[in-house]
Design a protein that fits this description.
Elements lengths: L3 E3 L3 E5 L1 E4 L2 E4 L3 E4 L2 E6 L2 H12 L18 E6 L4 E4 L6 E3 L4 E3 L3 H9 L4 H11 L7 E5 L1
Antiparallel strand pairs: 1-2, 1-10, 2-11, 3-4, 5-6, 6-7, 7-8, 8-9
Helix pairs in contact: 2-3
Length: 142
C-alpha cells in the first residue's frame, strides 16, 4: 500500500496506514541531512531503514529484512536532486527519469506526472483509484 511520488521538485506521499485492518494516519516521507526519504511497506521497517540511511547506509549494517522477500521499498532524493531506490539489497540504484513513484499507487501517480501534473496532484489521483492509498497528503520540497 502507499504512494510516494517525486516530480523533480516535490516529494509527496499519502498518509494512509494500516494496523491489522485498522486505518491509521501516518507520515511516510521525512527530511534528513542528506535529502528526502520516502518508504512503502511496513512502518517498523520504514523507521529502521530511515535510521540506517541517516547513519550512512553502510552495507554491512543493512537491516536483515532488507535482504529478504520482506524488504522495504525506499526512495531517497539526495540534496543534489538525484533519486535513488533501495529494493531487496543494501545498495541503491539511481533513477534517471524526471519523475518517479513507488508503492501500490505508483502507476496512477506516474501517469499523472507524465500528463504534466506535480507530485502532490499525482498522489491525489492515486488515492482516488488505489484502495491502498489515501488519508491525506504530505509534501516536502527539496
Amino acid at each position: 500500500m502507499t504512494v510516494i511520488a517525486w516530480d523533480g521538485k516535490t516529494l509527496a506521499a499519502d498518509k494512509l496506514g494500516d494496523a491489522g485492518g485498522l486505518r491509521r494516519t501516518i507520515t511516510k516521507i521525512h527530511r534528513f541531512e542528506n535529502g528526502l526519504f520516502g518508504s512503502s511497506g511496513l512502518g517498523s521497517h520504514a523507521a529502521h531503514m530511515f535510521d540506517w540511511i541517516k547513519s550512512g547506509a553502510h552495507p554491512e549494517d543493512v537491516p536483515a529484512f532488507q535482504l529478504t522477500d520482506e524488504y522495504q521499498s525506499v526512495m531517497v532524493v539526495r540534496n543534489d536532486g538525484t533519486v535513488w531506490l533501495y529494493g531487496q539489497s543494501a545498495y541503491p540504484f539511481r533513477i534517471e527519469d524526471p519523475f518517479h513513484a513507488i508503492g501500490s499507487g505508483r502507476d496512477f501517480a506516474i501517469a499523472a506526472m507524465y500528463l504534466g501534473f506535480g507530485a502532490q496532484h499525482a498522489v491525489h489521483v492515486a488515492s482516488q483509484f488505489d484502495t491502498g492509498c489515501g488519508g491525506g497528503i504530505d509534501t516536502l520540497e527539496l
